[in-house]
Design brief:
This protein has 400 residues and is an alpha/beta fold. The chain folds into two domains: 189 residues, Rossmann fold (3-Layer(aba) Sandwich); 173 residues, Rossmann fold (3-Layer(aba) Sandwich), CATH 3.40.50. It contains 15 helices and 14 strands. The strands form two sheets. A seven-stranded parallel sheet has the order 3-2-1-4-5-6-7, sandwiched between helices. A seven-stranded parallel sheet has the order 10-11-9-8-12-13-14, with helices on both faces. The longest helix has 18 residues. The chain starts with a strand and ends in a 13-residue tail after the last helix.
């Protein structure tokens, strides 16, 4: 039985799409017979989200100084007690990288790194000075010491190689759980959207890299009473306030469902929903009519897979690294600029109900064939067996 540890910055919803990606990978490996434990830093949502990890045990540690990397001395000590055969670091630039590097050096046991888009050129430029500090302090050594990288897509392979890293690379995408059971309850926009109106959903971190400024500018240009733009997500760095000001500047009526006083007399064209989790998130996907992700940079976004699993057509940029969606006719391609997003919206608005349903069905079929968690779990098990010397070289390993 292989013992594996999954190391991540946060074991709660604060990690965004990384939370579901790491949690479900760990659970999938355990279901296939591995002994698995997750390690991460504690935050304000940890206690509420720990039950979601079951039956995978979790060790969560309060971050200390320096706060920029979340140093947690107990992290490495607990890792040594568990004594995994192999570690898997998810994400970069924080203390989980330090713990994986130090454990590997001390025990001579291998570790795998999933950058999750954090080595892409756009991501490296964001908060550049902090990342340069982390690079010289610990991240370069962590990256160079990895037995192999797990890239989500070919684009991420290029980002890894552009940094001069010669390690082995496997290409394994994220997975998704297909919705089942009774339909979710009413969406959070109930009573704010007329029955005849359609909803275009954005659900992700509200951050400048997500391209929402260009989306709102394009929305102002093509705004129609037939569609409402619903923006859901956890706000970062005051960006949501900037988007609301942009709506005002563009003359777009908007409402924030968390602030009843913000609901205008005229019907809102843009709705700010705030963070949506669990049943509320499921309701958003189920009841929307299409999904949009106009990002400048992504690893492999879980939110697109979630929208496809719910049979929704998607507008997304090539930077979302899911070219399969364009090839399968499950998504409309937009570039991360106002002009291209406006053209994509125009194409979406021109589609009838049958055309959108057909695109959504193709999306669901694509997810079922390529992006389920049992498939990902089997691939990762084969990689671990290969690294530890008990299995053949998997097909997902790239030639140098």
């Amino acid at each position: 039985m292989i013992k594996s540890a999954h190391l991540t910055a946060s074991v709660s919803r604060k990690a965004g799409g990384l939370f579901d990606a790491v949690l479900r990978q760990a659970q999938s490996e355990q279901q296939l017979g591995a002994m698995v434990k997750a390690f991460g830093l504690r935050d304000e949502n940890t206690d509420a989200d720990l039950p979601a990890w079951a039956p995978v045990p979790v060790a969560a540690f309060p971050p200390g100084w320096p706060s920029g990397i979340g140093r947690a001395p107990g992290f490495l000590a607990e890792l040594e007690v568990f004594a995994p055969d192999i570690c898997h670091t998810h994400g970069l630039w924080l203390y989980s990288s330090v713990a994986a590097k130090n454990y590997g050096r001390k025990t001579k046991r291998p570790y795998v790194i999933s950058p999750h888009g954090m080595l892409d050129p756009w991501a490296l430029k964001n908060s550049r000075w902090k990342k340069q500090f982390a690079w010289h302090l610990f991240e370069a050594a962590h990256l160079r010491g990895a037995r192999c990288f797990r890239a989500l897509c070919k684009s991420e392979v290029n980002s890894i190689r552009q940094l001069g890293l010669k390690n082995d690379i496997v290409v394994i995408p994220n997975g998704i759980d297909l919705p089942s059971g009774a339909p979710p309850a009413a969406p959070p926009w109930k009573n704010l959207v007329a029955p005849e109106q359609k909803v275009l959903l954005f659900l992700s971190r509200i951050h400048p890299k997500k391209g929402l400024v260009n989306l709102i500018k394009a929305w102002a240009e093509l705004r129609t009473s037939d569609w409402v733009l619903a923006i859901a997500g956890w706000e970062q760095g005051g960006h949501e306030a900037e988007l609301k000001q942009l709506c005002n500047d563009q003359g777009i009526p908007f409402a924030d469902i968390r602030e009843p006083s913000s609901i205008l007399h005229s019907p809102p064209s843009v709705l700010f929903l705030g963070p949506q989790f669990n049943a509320n998130k499921a309701a958003c996907y189920h009841h929307c009519d299409a999904f949009v992700l106009p990002s400048f940079s992504e690893g492999l976004p879980m939110v697109v897979l979630e929208a496809w699993a719910n049979a929704k057509p998607v507008l997304m940029t090539p930077e979302c690294n899911l070219p399969e969606g364009f090839q399968a006719g499950a998504a409309l391609k937009i570039e991360p600029n106002e002009t291209s997003i406006a053209a994509g919206l125009q194409n979406l608005f021109a589609m009838n109900d049958s055309e959108r349903a057909a695109m959504g069905n193709r999306a669901r079929e694509l997810v079922e064939s390529r992006f389920t968690w049992p498939q990902v779990g089997r691939q990762m098990r084969a990689v671990h067996e290969w690294i530890l010397g008990g299995g053949a070289r998997p097909n997902c390993v790239l030639d140098a």
